Amino acid sequence: MKKTFLTNILPMIAAAVLLATSCSKDSDNNVVTTPDNTVPVQEQVVDDNQVKTIPFSITVGRDANTLSKATVDESSLTQKFEAGDGLVISGTSISGTLSLVSGAGKSIATFDGELSGSSVESITDETALTATLTNENSGNTGEELTAVQSAESLSEAFQKYGYWTASFTYGARNNVELVQNTAFVRVNLPFHGTKLNVKIGETTTSFYLNGDEILAVPNGATISCTLLGINKTVDISEGKVVLNIKNRTTPDDCIAGVFSVSEDKQIFFSKGTLQYNPKNSSWRFALNQYDKCHNSGDKVGINYASWQGDDKWTDIFGWGMWQEGQTPNKTSGSNNDYLSSITSGEFSGNAAIGSQWQTLSTSEWQYLLGSRDGNRYVMAQVNNMNGIILLPDNWSNTALNNYNTYDVEFSINTITSEQWIALESVGAVFLPAVGTRNNTDAGINAGITCAYWSSSTDNGAYAKYVLFKNKSLKLPDNGYRWVARAVRLVRGL
Predict the structure, then answer these.
(1) Which of 178-182, 281-285, 479-483 has the lowest mean pLDDT?
(2) Rounded to an integer, what distance in angstroms lies between the CA atom of residue 195 and that of residue 189?
(3) Which of 184, 292, 384, 428 could form a disulfide with 423 if both were Cys (CB 3.0 to 4.6 A apart)?
């Protein structure tokens, strides 16, 4: 059906007027005109490219198939049309912005307005058009996402970052379904700091998830997370627009914080330092993160009562003695009585307390304490115990003092046991200064020295460990294998 329009014909009367004349009077004193043949007659040209307008109305709905495959509670989605909705129509040399005239609060709505453009005059039922939903109240301009955006709720994300579009022809404008072209990631995790990578084109951006998160993601983006085992390219054509990251729990005996120990590896820390009961040959993690087993002057070994009771535990070991098949309470002062070397240079999950537990390598300790972005650690005194607080990835709490600074007193951050409960609940880890042991002399520098073994060696007399002591940091330090130091195990999800 071809649309016709009136054009301005007034200029055409110029054809009836002589463009150049001379005047005189006849004998009856009447005025007469004589054409001036030296001036050519000009033709009036009508500009066929001038903008023209026509009224336009369209009825649209939202593709129910897209939403039904979203596997989310429908009550949490903005599926209905709302006040402030608008519809942008575009085609070849045609455009228009329509207003919502009916259907607010419903799943089908009518929009009304005008189309304009140089090709409006030749529009037919087969003319191809596109429609894009906007909403002035939420600031949705109808533009396709080019970067990840966050929102407080899924309904807000749908309204603010949804990219609803449809392709149709002019003659089929009363049965148009808008299709969602933005994907949404809904996160519900009980731990803090999980690293999520989102690749858009050739650019990868990392996001750190803390509890509940809503992200709007452009179609075609690739979402990956090593810790959670996710690697998925978003494809809206599959019909699913919401990716749920949930039903995950903090691993048993772990603190609910996630820590990067390399560019592509994150771990959980055990809930306390590793402890061993020589009498019962049993393992456990410290009941509180700030606990220690020995005081200065303690004597340990088979000839001392300190290792003869059910309640007698130790939290310092010769290098590798926490591994399966070793002797945890060995007090020998000879390196020949301890593990000498490991081919890989690192332990590979063979702790006596469980094969899922690992010991950080030197490079992992270095990344944890020195290479991660943001606030990594603070010196502290927790429940009157000196040590270091390790902070999970993307730590946003600014209440602590002197972040990433080791040359300060432990008391720079003095934290009560009640205050520590709050910090621990959001993933903070405490490494207490439990001291070391030489042969049977335990508790050496207890409350002063934070010395924690790594899994790395120099394949000689020494093994490597991290040391905080007297306002100094050694990362790593080398130490004899027979000197007992603390162990803090880690694991993946």
Answers:
(1) 178-182
(2) 12
(3) 428
- Residue 204 burial (CB count, 10 A): 12
Give per-residue burial for 250-285: e unless 16+ CB within 10 Å, then b: bbebbbbbbbbbbeeebbbbbbbbbbbbbeeeebeb
What residues have CB less than 8 Å from 266, skipping those under 6 apart? 193, 194, 195, 226, 227, 258, 259, 260, 393, 492
Tell me the chain's radius of gyration from C-alpha atoms.
38
Residue with tokens 């379904």, as numbered in its chain: 177
Give whole-number Cα distances, 167 to 120, 172, 284, in Å.
Answer: 18, 10, 63
User: Whole-angstrom Cα distance, residue 314 to residue 278?
Assistant: 8
Length of the chain: 493
Provide the CA 91 distance to its chain's centre, in angstroms.
37
Contact (Cβ atoms closer than 8 angstroms) between residue 163 and residue 181: yes
3-class DSSP assignment, residue 460: coil
Unique residue bearing structure tokens 């000009």: 42
pLDDT digits (tens, 9 = 90+) for 20-57: 344 444 444 444 344 444 434 333 333 444 568 999 99
Please, are residues 329 and 293 in contact by the beta-carbon 8 Å criterion? Answer: no
Q: Answer whether 297's CB lies under 8 Å from 311's CB.
A: no
With vertex at residue 369, the alpha carbon angle to CA 366 and CA 375, rounded to the nearest 5 degrees, is 150
pLDDT tens readout for residues 355-399: 899 999 999 999 999 999 999 999 999 999 999 999 999 998 889
Query: Quick one: pLDDT at residue 305?
Result: 63
Highest mean pLDDT (candidates 64-73, 170-179, 265-274)? 265-274
Nearest residue to 257 (alpha-carbon basis) of 211, 300, 216, 222: 211
* Residues whose CB is less than 8 angstroms from the CB of residue 293 and which lie 6 or more positions away in sequence, other chains included: 275, 313, 314, 315, 316, 434, 442
For the chain, the helix, strand and coil percentages under 3-state DSSP, each to the nearest 5: 10, 40, 45
Q: What is the pLDDT of residue 66?
A: 55
Question: Which token pair is 352?
Answer: 């006596």
How many Å apart are CA 315 and CA 293, to the nearest integer? Answer: 6
For the chain, domain boundaries: 55-112+128-249, 267-491
Q: What is the pLDDT of residue 15?
A: 40
Nearest by Cα to 42 from 9, 22, 16: 16
Edge to edge, the sheet with strand 385-390 lists 414-415, 377-382, 385-390, 429-432
Q: Could you tell me which residue, 174 or 365, shows the higher pLDDT?
A: 365
Alpha helices in 296-403 (DSSP H): 362-366
φ/ψ of 492, rounded to 5, equals: -90, -170
Residue 296: per-residue pLDDT: 84
